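Recall the central idea of this unit: under ordinary conditions, the amino acid sequence of a chain determines the structure it adopts. In this exercise we apply that idea directly, starting from the sequence alone.
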Amino acid sequence: MTRNVKCIAISLTVLSTLILVSCSAKYAAYSNEMFTGKKLLQEKEYEKAKEYFAQASNVQQDSASLALLGATYYKMGDLANAERTIREAERIDKNSYYFMRILGYKSLILLKQDKPEGINALRQYVDYVKALNLPFEMHDIETMIGKNTVDFAVLDPKIEEQVTWYEDENERLENGVPNYFSERYVPNR
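Accordingly, the structure predicted from this sequence is:
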C-alpha cells in the first residue's frame, strides 16, 4: 500500500469515527430533551416542557418533537404556534406513532379557533383511531361530530388520554416490554 493510500485510509477512519461520535452525541441530546420534556408535560410545567421540545426539535426535527411541542403550545393557549407546529409535524411524517397525537391536537386546535375544518379534523382523528382498532370508546366524540358541537371538558382529556396511552404502549413495544400490542397479537401456541 502506498503512503498516500494509507493516509487516505487513516483520514477516512478518523472522519468516520468523528461522524459516529457526533451522531451519537446528537441522539443522546435529543433523547434527553424528549425525556425531560415529556416529564415536564406530565407535570403541567408547560413553559419548561416547551423549551425542551424546542431544543429536541432543533437537534432533530421530526414529527415526535414537533407533535409534543404543538401539544404543549395548545396547553399554554398559544393556538397560532400550536397550529403551525402541528401542521409541520403532520407534513414531516404521517407514519410515526405520534401521528395520532398530531391528528388529535390538530382537531383540538382548529376547534378552539372555531375554524370550519375543525370538525373534519376531529372526524379524521376518529377514523384513524378506528382504523388502528384500539380499545377506545369513541361514542362521545362521534356524538359531538354528529351534532357539530364540542364539549372541550370531555374532548380535551379524552384525546390526551388516548394519545398518551397509544404512545406509551408503542414505546413499551419498542423496548421489548409486555404491552397491549404484544399481548394482543401473540400467536396462539
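Residues 37 and 67 are 12 Å apart (CA to CA).
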